[in-house]
Amino acid sequence: MGESAISVRNVKIKYRCFKKVSLLKSIFAPRKNKKIEYFEAVKGVSFEVEKGQILGIVGKNGSGKSTLLKAIAGIFSPDEGEIDLHGHSISLLSIGVGFQNKLSGRENIFLSGMLLGFERPQIEEKLDEIIEFSELGDFIDRPVKTYSSGMYSKLAFSITAILETEIMLIDEVLSVGDAKFKKKSYEKMRSLIMNKDRTVVIVSHSSDTLRKLCDNILWLHDGVVKMQGTTEEVLPLYEEFMS
Ligand SMILES: Nc1ncnc2c1ncn2[C@@H]1O[C@H](COP(=O)(O)OP(=O)(O)OP(=O)(O)O)[C@@H](O)[C@H]1O
Fold first, then answer.
1. Hey, which of 19, 39, 45 would you mutate to test ligand 1's pocket, going by the most ligand atoms within 8 Å of its Cβ?
2. So what's the pLDDT on residue 94?
3. Whose CA is nearest to atom 5 of ligand 1?
4. What string of DSSP letters covers 48-93?
5. pTM here?
6. d(CA 37, CA 16)
7. Helix, strand or coil, per DSSP, at residue 191
8. What are the tens digits of pLDDT across the range 136-186?
9. What mean pLDDT, rounded, does the chain reach?
10. Would the CB of 64 count as within 6 Å of ligand 1?
11. Which residue intervals define the domain ABC transporter in the entry (predicted)?
12. Kind and range of the H or E run holding 171
């Protein structure tokens, strides 16, 4: 076993949900009926990711993949267990995470960069490259709320791909944007991944993408690890299960 980049030890994550009550009940006894329920989305998951490894996470809808990724990214902390990144910098590339809609694309580059732990001069140094890669042209100075979903994801991808962190978490975004951008982002991702110092975790429903990019696969099922192993070992069994 090589040097560890991510250690996930017995992680459990619960969501707080409010139980639905009838409208009448909530009007006449509002406090009494505000029942909180918990839903455990991740139920004691443990695994290690070695430095330089490219791990794919698979599982049917609702199996806890995105929840786990957000916990690794530090967006929320686990209710139990621990996640150790061994001091590595980390970024999460995911649709719908992280932009301030009223701010321009350019302002969001600075905001996201700072949230990723970069200093302003470091971001300034990479600014032109990010804008160029995003292909947003003049839109870069317009509020992000005026962007189409494809433009939004182009910006998100460009920030994460150009401001390189040691660990990159990617949630399903390789399949967005127009065909040309999809190809370009796939190539960029490949070159980032080829850097053996970088550790990558990809959540995807595309076996094709996973087969091309990943060395290892973690299969989550109803919040627990069903299987972990090499891509050749796990992916055929997962595909058979899903067919
Ligand atoms: N904010 C939330 N509040 C309550 N339950 C949630 C919340 N977000 C997710 N869940 C539940 O947690 C479980 C895991 O969700 P998660 O999004 O992690 O699954 P996933 O494997 O990424 O699914 P998909 O493949 O559909 O993206 C699901 O049952 C989902 O309904």
1. 39
2. 72
3. 15
4. EEETT-EEEEE-STTSSHHHHHHHHHTSS--SEEEEE-TT--EEEE
5. 0.84
6. 6
7. helix
8. 999 999 999 999 888 888 898 888 888 888 998 888 766 666 788 888 877
9. 88
10. yes
11. 18-242
12. strand 167-171
Helix (H) or strand (E) segment spanning residue 8? strand 4-18
First CA to last CA distance, the chain: 34
Q: With a 6 A CB cut-off, is 223 part of the ligand 1 pocket?
A: no
Q: Give the separation between CA 136 and CA 181, rounded to whole angstroms.
A: 11
162 phi/psi in degrees, rounded to 5: -90, -40
In the chain, what is the greatest distance between 2 CA atoms, to the nearest angstrom?
62
Do 157 and 93 meet the contact criterion of CB atoms below 8 Å apart? yes
Rounded (10°) angle between helices 179-194 and 149-162:
20
CA distances (Å), origin 156, targets 92, 112, 137: 10, 9, 15
Strands in 224-230's sheet, in edge-to-edge order, are: 90-94, 167-171, 199-203, 54-58, 216-221, 224-230
Q: How many CB atoms lie within 10 A of CB 6?
A: 22
| DSSP 8-state code for residue 19 | P
- Could you tell me the CA-to-CA distances from 139 to 103, 106, 228 in Å, in that order? 12, 9, 43
What is the side-by-side strand order in the sheet with 36-50?
Answer: 36-50, 4-18, 80-84
Residue 233 scores a pLDDT above 90: yes
